[in-house]
Each structure stands twice: as structure tokens, then as C-alpha cells.
Design brief:
heterodimer, A: mainly beta, B: about 35% helix, elongated
Chain lengths: ~700, ~325
């Protein structure tokens, strides 16, 4: 019998015994205890999409739901499900009504991202992976099998209280800890740039600990509070050391970043004043957050030339890095009902990020080459590589006005302004203005309408317009590039007849980056959603949902040297692979239909069922000179998924319920980047080592489950 | 003897007087829940099983006047024999009642609750979403969430209340997103909408539980907090530049597939500007512009540039996020 089965049976028996004892010795305990099992049959090479967040492995399962029913002010509840399984949840709550309450919990989350991955490396799960022999084996049949999977164990709780039920003073303490263990994907280049690619198993052994406290004074007219949060992230494996496959002589150990320990401290203060003149409320919030870390810098890095490795000196200006990022924010909002039918909001938000980390300049030297990254204004490579930190400041202000024309109709209008200043090479400032209009109407007898339109205009101060480097002058990064956005949203909801609710929504969004030459030039989104439900929950109720969405991302680019820009040059002596402009349209169509029904046949028998069909088609069309021979992509995260879940619950006796269920799922996936997957593919002269991350996710599954519930 | 009899008569008179006073008080008070139960038994039972019906709670409606707290004085309603709205009886869940009036009933008791501190500033109040849109005051003691429809979901391992079903009533597009292959475990019951958002109001955009998107995401994803020796600017400014936290079809909840997403910002000589078309897949025949390309197959740019959220390795290896 597996350990999890033993655990489930033991815990369930214990819970039953405790509840029985409590029921006998302490009057006013009620609840239920369940024990059952799951049996899954899954046909798949990599069923991670089946069990990504669910533990549906064959085995026992159990749970409990207990609560006290005494007449006094003290109350307690206990709830647990999936006991002993990877997605276990246990919670205890209680308190003294109106004065004190607490919660303790354990919530396990499993995150599977690939089953049956393969690697030529040994030491999987450690921070030091290697292989035997002079070079890594390319025979996949000799590779080692493992799973990319991380389990998160969350423990925590809170306590909150006040001296008396009517006391305005309160306190709250929260504490939680998350342990994350497992393996995740880490990609690394054999050399930079170019060379082979390696997909490595990186160990995850993290702990995040949060402790916070809040004290406050809260009445109907006023709320004042101060809170402090301390959060510590610890990683037992800050770097992954790995032997590089292509090096057969000289040093051959690389170091890749996993995650560094860090600490966060946050102070926050809130002040809200209500029942001011014009039925107004003034809300204020200020927050100061500091994130820090400290670690020694590696004195060398590996440089690879052919099959020879060199431990090249990094030449750091300091042996240690002290990281410090400070975020400060202040928000204020004034809400008032100026007159009958009028509602308004005026607001201001300020956010500042300062990176006060130690600035490091690397001057690489010694054997091998590479490691520099700084360039001068003409694009010429320098002998150094310096850290660059982002500082930014955002100021946002706006006003919203709402006017109720009559009880059935309301108009709203708003204006929002956002100014962002940042230290960045390309755009050091953006100004965004957004205006919106909305009309809500309940004038139709059986339906409510809502129409909202907004337009956003973003301008930017571009610093590289005078650069001699063509790409620097013409590449506009979409997160800061000048932009015009239009969004329209239309919603209609109603009940045309008793027990029937219908709803429909249409969304259109367009982002146009009008000034962009290279980069994202436009993206659009159109979506239609329909929903409906009919019936009486006591007799029969069915609900359905359908959704269609189309998104498209357009972009423009240039391949190769820009010496001839904007004139394209075919492959030849001037441009080996050709130098030319090209553009793409990446399209995405998503479809979803779902229906669920609940049927209480009689007071003792209830059926539930749910069916979902969902599909996506992705593609990319290219436009390029004929000599580029651009081939469109037709399989881009294409998938089709169907799920069916049927369940029946029968109250066999007053104390016992029997639940039986069946689920069927089918997932078909096709993607040009993963189809015909080859773990040990050679690209040109480069020997790559891929592990199969996310590959072969198709699956078909049948699941049978059931449990017996004892109620008392 | 006479004195004793006199005292006895006085005591009896006092008792009768007190009794009369008590009876007057009883007649003057609104009808209690037991009276309402005579016609509204199902609602009475659901009220009794809810936290509002908990007489042990000193501030609950059950301890302070019962049904009249929310529905108003039902004396005339009872005298008239009942009926929708008759006698001034109030239904806080009625569609015809303005949202602000519904909220006023709940806020009579809950306005001082710390969870509602920013209610007036929140988008829900501004959009006429009232307490009774999401909460059923007669609901089960545990959550009071109003979920009336069966859940459209695949097999899930949780019997806990699916909070997201309340939100999806209005936020239909989000329901579609969380059903996509790449998603946070919302449907699975491990993450809730309130893990990231505060539906009761906040001063932050989209009423998130933090001052910025990055601060919100790194509450759970603390490994991405940094500070990093080499930062990636769009990561530091907002995770939403690359990710859609509600779900998508592309791994890691990306807005767009890689390399397209990366090439929307990176275009230069050599491989950032290369056109990665269908002729770069695993089985493509090799040619001048075709053949398997490690910058396209498998995880594309991430095959090499893995430390995309920031790197701590020295020199150019860290700057280019390849270590």
C-alpha cells in the first residue's frame, strides 16, 4: 500500500474517530467525513495538460467538513479535502463571534509542466549536473528520464480581533510560508551569440516566508490603519552549475542564474474619511517598499572557442553586488455625490521606483573572448559591460462623472492622464491621455444595455532619433512606443421570461503604433461572448456559455545589415542570407462552448454534468521579398480539447451519501515548434540537447471516481 | 396581617403593570423572524443557517431585530396579509432597487469593516454593482457568495465554493481566458480572483491587491523580485507587457508566442531580426534560408535567453540573459 493511501486511510479514520468523540462528548458538532478513490486511465506520452494542477493519480482520497453548532459565541470549523494527495487542502477556522477570528491552513499546489523529459545529464535535481565521458552522449536511448514538476506547499494563517464587538480598534496578524520543490526548465546558449542550445533541469528548492501585521481604527466615518509586511525569499540553489557538452578540453563548467535570496519590507498607511460634505469620501494610501539582496559575484565566466573552454576573468569593479530597489507610492481619491443623480470621482496616483543597487562595470580579460556588451554612440563595441538599472516615476490623475438621467439610464464620462518618466536608453518619457464614455440603460423591459468606448493616446520622448545606428533609430519597443488605442464594449443582459437569463457581450480593441517602423505596428482583438441559464435550482437548471475571440499582432522587421536600408539585397556577397524588410501577421482564433446542468431528481438523488469544447487556431503570415521565400505558419499552438464530467450523489441513508462520477477528456495539440520533436537535433554544425519540455502533450483520459460520505 | 396583604396586593399590581408594559413593548416591536417564517419558511431557514442568523454574534441581525434590519418594519406588511412590496417591505435583492440603496442597507452594519475601507473608491460601486449582486445574505454560513448556476468546469478536485463563478457572471471574457490551456489554477480552486483583486474596492488599477502589477505578481513569484544585476526593463515596469495572468493558449501565459513577442521589441542585425517562418521547424530541409533553427524550435528564444526576468551572472552573459 502506498504511503499516500496509508495517510488517507489513517487521517480519515482519525477524523471519524475525533468527530465521533466530539459528537458524543461535546454537544453541537456536526459535519461529514468522506473516503473514496480515483482511478485514471491516461493515454499520453506527456500528460502534463491533464494533471498540470490536479492530482488525479490512482488511489484513495478523503476529506472532512466539521463545524461546531453551539449556542455560545465561540465557533470552530475544520475542512479538508484530497488528504494525502499532491493537491491537499486543510483549513481550520474559528473565533469568538464579533471579537476574534483565526484561520490556519495548508494548501498544496502541484504544478506539472512535463512528464517523461529526457536529458544526457546526471545529477538531476541537484545544482550540479554533469555527464560521464569526454562528451555528452547523443544517443537519446541512454538519456535519463525525469519530470519537470514543482510542488508548492503553503502553510499559513491569520488572527484578527478587536476588544469588543463595537470597538473601532482592531489588529490583524498574517503569517505564511511557501515551500517550493521540484525541477523546472532552464535554457542556456552554448556560446553567445549563436552556437548550440541546451535545455537543462534546474532544481527548485525555495522558501518564501511572509509575516505582516496591521493595526487600525475603523468607524463608519473614518478608517485609519498602518501595516507592515516582511517577506523573505530563500533559494537553496542560487545557481545551476553544469558541464558544457561541447567542451572536451579546458575548463567546462558553466553557471546559470536560478534565483537569488531576497528580502522585502513594506510599510503602508490608509486613511479614509466618509460622510464629508456632498456625501463625499476621501481615501488616501501611502506605501513604501524596499527589496534587497546581497551576493558575491562570480570572478570568472566560461568562454568557449571550438571545443576548448577558458575561465575568462570577469574583471568586476566590485566583488559583491548589493541590490536595493525602493518603491514609493501615494494614492488619493475623492468621491462625492455632488447633487441628486450625480456621482463623481477625482483621483491622483504617484508611483516611483528607484534602483539603488551597486553599479558594476565588468572589464573582461584573460583567455578566450567575449563578455563585453557596452557600445558607444556609433554602435562600436567597447571593452566593458556595465549594469543598467531602470528607475521610473509615474504620475496619474483623472476625473470621472456619472449622471443618472432617470432611474433607467445613466451616462458616465471620464478622463485619465498618466505621465511616466524613466531612465531608459530609448524612451525616457511617455504621456498617456485616455477619455471614455459609457451609457447604461435599463429602459428595455427585459434587458439591460451597457455601451462603453474609450480612446487612449500615448506620446513618447524618443532619445535615439539621432543615432547613427539604423536599428536604434527605427526600433520602437511597443511597451513605450507612441500608441493610439480604441476600445468599444457592448453588453446586453436580460430575463425575457421567468427562469431564463441571457447575456451577450462584444469587445473590440485596437492598438495602433503609428510611428513605429520596426517592431509591433498594430494589434487587434475582437471577442463575442454569449451566456444563458434556465431553470429552477430546486428542479432542474442548465447553464451554457460560448466565446469566440480573434486576435492579431502585426509587426515589421529588417533582416541583416542595414547598410542598404531601405533597399533589399538578395543573398550574395554583400548579404550572405539576404538583407531585407519583412512583416508578419500573427493570428489567433479561439473558440469555447460549455454547458452544465444540475438535476435534483428527488430529495435523495442529484445529478450534475458539464461538457466543454474548446479550440484554438494560430497562424502567422509573412510578407517579404520573393527571394526570402517566406513560408506561412499554420500550426501555432493549435489545440482542441473536450471535457465531460458526470456525477451523481445519492443519499443512501440519513447518514450516508454515495457519490459516483465519470470524466472523459481529450486534448489534441499541434505546434510547428514542437511537432516532429528531435531531442538531439543538430542545427548546422551545432549539437543541441533538448529535453522535451512541453512536447507531446496530446492525451485522452478516462477517470472514474467515487466516495462514501458519512454525515452526522 | 393587613400590612402583609397590602404588600402582596402591591406586588401583584406591580407584576400586572410590568406585564402590561411588556405586552405593549412586544406589540410595538416589528414582527420577529418567527412571524416571517409563517409565509417565508425557506428564506427563514436559509437566514437561520447564515452568519446573519447567528444569535451568538452580538452584531448579527438575529441578535438585533431579525428580518427588520434589512427588510424594514414588517408590521403593516403582516397586517395587510403580505405581498411584494406591500406595507413598505423592502427586498434588497430586487432589481428595481437602486444599487446605492441596497448598499446602504448592508453598510449600516458593515461600513466600518476594514475590508470595505475603499468601497466608495472602487470600480464596482461606481458601476452600480451592489452587495447583493455577489452576496446572498441568506446564503450558507461559510461564504455568502451568490452562485445560482451549475459550474461549467472540467473535473476538479475541490468541493470548495468556486468563487470565480460569481465574478464570471459579469466578466465573461475572463471565464474564456481561464479555460485556456495555459492558466493559473483558478478553476482547480487553488487561486481565487481575490488572490489578486479586491472586489470591495482599492485605489490601484483593476483593484489589484498591490501598488503595481510587478509587486502583485512577485507576492507569489518571489523568485522574480530581484534585484538583478542585469534587469530587463519591460519586466520591471509591468509583467503585463508579456503575460496575460488570466490565461492564454501559449505556455507561461504569454500574450504572444515566442519569437514573435520578443521580436516586437528586438530587431537588429543577426538573429533578432531573422524571419523565423515555417521552414525553420524540426524537419525542414536545410537550405540558404531554411532548415531547423534552434532560435525557432522548442522554446525558441528561451532556448538560450532563459533568464529573461533578470540575470546575476557576470558580464555579457548576464546582460544578454543567457546565464
Amino acid at each position: 500500500m502506498t504511503r499516500s493511501k496509508q495517510t488517507v486511510i489513517a487521517l480519515t479514520a482519525l477524523a471519524a474517530a475525533i468527530s465521533g468523540a466530539l459528537a458524543q462528548e461535546v454537544p453541537g458538532v456536526t459535519g461529514s467525513v468522506s473516503i473514496g478513490g480515483i482511478s485514471s486511465n491516461v493515454d499520453s506520452q506527456n500528460p502534463f495538460r491533464f494533471d498540470e494542477y490536479r492530482d488525479l493519480s490512482n488511489g484513495a482520497t478523503g476529506g472532512f467538513d466539521l463545524r461546531t453548532t453551539g449556542a455560545g459565541p465561540w465557533w470552530f470549523k475544520g475542512f479538508g479535502e484530497n488528504i494525502g494527495r499532491d493537491d491537499q487542502f486543510i483549513e481550520f477556522k474559528g473565533g469568538n463571534s464579533g471579537v476574534f477570528k483565526f484561520q490556519l491552513y495548508n494548501d498544496d499546489i502541484i504544478h506539472n509542466t512535463t512528464h517523461n523529459a529526457l536529458t544526457p545529464f546526471t545529477g538531476i535535481g541537484t545544482n550540479n549536473i554533469t555527464f560521464t565521458g569526454p562528451s555528452a552522449p547523443t544517443n537519446v536511448s541512454t538519456w535519463n528520464r525525469f519530470d519537470y514538476s514543482v510542488k508548492h506547499r503553503n502553510y499559513g494563517g491569520f488572527a484578527e480581533g478587536q476588544a469588543t464587538p463595537d470597538s473601532p480598534l482592531y489588529f490583524r496578524i498574517d503569517a505564511k510560508e511557501k515551500h517550493s520543490e521540484g525541477i523546472r526548465t532552464l535554457g542556456a546558449a552554448g556560446t553567445s551569440p549563436g552556437g548550440p542550445a541546451y535545455e537543462l533541469p534546474a532544481p527548485i528548492d525555495w522558501k518564501t516566508t511572509d509575516i505582516s501585521g496591521e493595526i487600525g481604527y475603523s468607524t463608519r466615518k473614518m478608517h485609519l490603519s498602518v501595516s507592515y509586511l516582511y517577506s523573505k525569499f530563500e533559494d537553496d540553489n542560487e545557481f545551476l552549475s553544469w558541464r558544457t557538452p561541447q567542451v572536451t578540453s579546458g575548463p567546462n563548467v558553466e553557471h546559470s542564474t536560478i534565483a537569488m535570496d531576497n528580502k522585502l519590507e513594506r510599510w503602508a498607511a490608509n486613511a479614509i474619511f466618509r460622510q464629508l460634505p456632498w456625501d463625499s469620501t476621501l481615501a488616501l494610501r501611502a506605501v513604501h517598499t524596499k527589496v534587497t539582496n546581497d551576493f558575491p559575484i562570480f570572478p570568472t565566466f566560461l568562454s568557449v572557442s571550438g571545443t576548448t573552454g577558458f575561465d575568462r576573468l570577469a574583471g568586476a569593479s566590485s566583488p559583491n553586488f548589493s541590490g536595493e530597489v525602493v518603491n514609493e507610492s501615494f494614492s488619493a481619491a475623492f468621491n462625492s455625490r455632488l447633487a441628486k443623480g450625480w456621482d463623481s470621482k477625482v483621483y491622483y496616483n504617484y508611483y516611483k521606483r528607484e534602483n539603488n543597487s551597486s553599479e558594476i562595470v565588468f572589464t573582461p580579460s584573460g583567455g578566450g573572448s567575449g563578455g563585453t556588451c557596452d557600445v558607444n554612440a556609433n554602435g562600436a563595441t567597447l571593452t566593458t559591460c556595465s549594469t543598467e538599472f531602470l528607475h521610473f516615476k509615474k504620475q496619474n490623475a483623472g476625473v470621472e462623472l456619472y449622471y443618472r438621467v432617470n432611474p433607467s439610464n445613466r451616462l458616465a464620462i471620464g478622463y485619465d492622464y498618466l505621465d511616466t518618466e524613466r531612465e531608459r536608453l530609448d524612451f525616457n518619457e511617455n504621456k498617456e491621455q485616455k477619455g471614455w464614455l459609457e451609457w447604461k440603460s435599463g429602459s428595455l423591459e427585459y434587458a439591460d444595455l451597457r455601451v462603453k468606448y474609450y480612446h487612449l493616446n500615448r506620446t513618447g520622448t524618443f532619445l535615439l532619433g539621432g543615432s547613427t545606428v539604423v536599428f536604434d533609430r527605427l526600433v520602437y519597443r511597443f511597451d513605450a512606443a507612441p500608441l493610439d488605442r480604441d476600445v468599444i464594449k457592448f453588453t446586453i443582459e436580460g430575463s425575457p421570461m421567468p427562469l431564463l437569463d441571457l447575456g451577450a457581450e462584444f469587445i473590440y480593441k485596437k492598438n495602433k503604433y503609428g510611428d513605429t517602423v520596426f517592431g509591433r505596428t498594430k494589434d487587434t482583438r475582437q471577442e463575442v461572448s454569449l451566456s444563458g441559464s434556465w431553470g429552477d435550482a430546486k428542479v432542474f437548471r442548465v447553464t451554457a456559455f460560448a466565446d469566440w475571440e480573434h486576435t492579431q499582432y502585426d509587426s515589421s522587421h529588417w533582416v541583416g545589415s542595414t547598410a542598404s536600408y531601405p533597399v533589399p539585397i538578395p543573398p550574395g556577397s554583400q548579404c550572405s542570407s539576404g538583407c531585407y524588410p519583412w512583416s508578419s501577421e500573427a493570428k489567433d482564433k479561439n473558440y469555447l462552448f460549455g454547458v452544465a446542468a444540475d438535476w435534483p431528481v428527488n430529495p435523495r438523488l442529484r445529478f450534475y454534468g458539464s461538457y466543454i469544447w474548446t479550440k484554438a487556431d494560430g497562424s502567422v503570415d509573412f510578407e517579404a521579398p520573393a527571394f526570402a521565400n517566406a513560408q506561412p505558419i499554420r500550426d501555432y499552438d493549435n489545440y482542441k480539447k473536450q471535457t465531460l464530467n458526470l456525477k451523481g450523489v445519492w443519499a443512501a441513508t440519513k447518514q450516508f451519501d454515495v457519490t459516483l462520477g465519470y470524466a472523459y477528456e481529450k486534448y489534441d495539440y499541434s505546434d510547428i515548434q514542437l511537432n516532429d520533436y528531435i531531442y538531439n537535433i543538430k542545427t548546422g554544425s551545432n549539437q543541441n540537447f533538448f529535453s522535451g519540455a512541453y512536447a507531446f502533450p496530446n492525451y485522452r483520459a478516462n477517470v472514474v471516481y467515487g466516495w462514501l460520505t458519512y454525515r452526522f | 396581617m393587613k400590612k402583609t396583604v397590602g404588600l402582596m396586593y402591591s406586588a401583584v399590581a406591580l407584576v400586572i403593570a410590568l406585564g402590561a408594559l411588556a405586552m405593549q413593548s412586544a406589540v410595538a416591536a416589528p414582527p420577529g423572524p418567527e412571524v416571517c417564517a409563517g409565509c417565508h419558511e425557506a428564506y427563514f431557514n436559509s437566514f437561520a443557517s447564515s452568519v446573519h442568523g447567528n444569535k451568538a454574534h452580538p452584531r448579527s441581525p438575529a441578535s438585533n431585530g431579525g428580518c427588520a434590519n434589512c427588510h424594514g418594519d414588517g408590521t403593516k406588511h403582516v397586517e395587510a396579509g403580505g405581498g411584494r412590496g406591500v406595507g413598505g417591505i423592502v427586498n434588497p435583492a430586487a432589481k428595481s432597487m437602486p444599487a446605492a440603496e441596497k448598499d446602504k442597507i448592508c453598510l449600516t452594519c458593515h461600513e466600518a469593516n476594514r475590508h470595505l475601507a475603499f468601497w466608495d473608491s472602487g470600480k464596482h460601486r461606481k458601476n452600480d454593482v451592489s452587495c447583493t449582486n455577489c452576496h446572498s445574505t441568506h446564503g450558507d454560513r461559510d461564504t455568502l457568495l451568490k452562485i445560482t448556476n451549475p459550474q461549467i468546469a472540467p473535473l476538479v478536485n475541490t468541493s470548495r465554493v468556486p468563487q470565480q463563478e460569481v465574478c464570471f457572471t459579469c466578466h465573461r471574457d475572463i471565464r474564456a481566458l481561464v479555460m485556456r490551456p495555459s492558466h493559473h489554477p483558478i478553476v482547480e480552486g487553488k487561486i481565487k480572483c481575490t488572490s489578486c483583486h479586491n472586489p470591495h474596492g482599492a485605489l490601484s488599477p483593476a483593484m489589484v491587491n498591490a501598488e503595481s502589477i510587478k509587486e502583485l505578481c512577485t507576492t507569489c513569484h518571489a523568485d522574480k523580485r530581484g534585484p538583478f544585476m542585469f534587469e530587463h526593463a519591460p519586466v520591471e515596469e509591468s509583467c503585463l507587457n508579456c503575460h496575460n495572468p488570466h490565461g492564454g493558449r501559449t505556455v507561461k501565459l504569454l500574450n504572444e508566442k515566442v519569437p514573435n513577442l520578443c521580436q516586437d521589441c528586438h530587431d537588429a542585425a543577426q538573429h533578432p531580426g531573422t524571419m523565423y517562418d515555417a521552414d525553420n521547424n524540426f524537419k525542414a530541409p536545410s537550405g540558404p534560408t531554411s532548415g531547423p533553427n534552434s532560435r525557432f524550435i522548442a522554446r525558441s528564444c528561451m532556448n538560450c535567453h532563459n533568464e529573461i526576468h533578470g540575470s546575476n551572472t557576470p558580464a555579457g552573459r548576464g546582460r544578454r540573459f543567457v546565464r
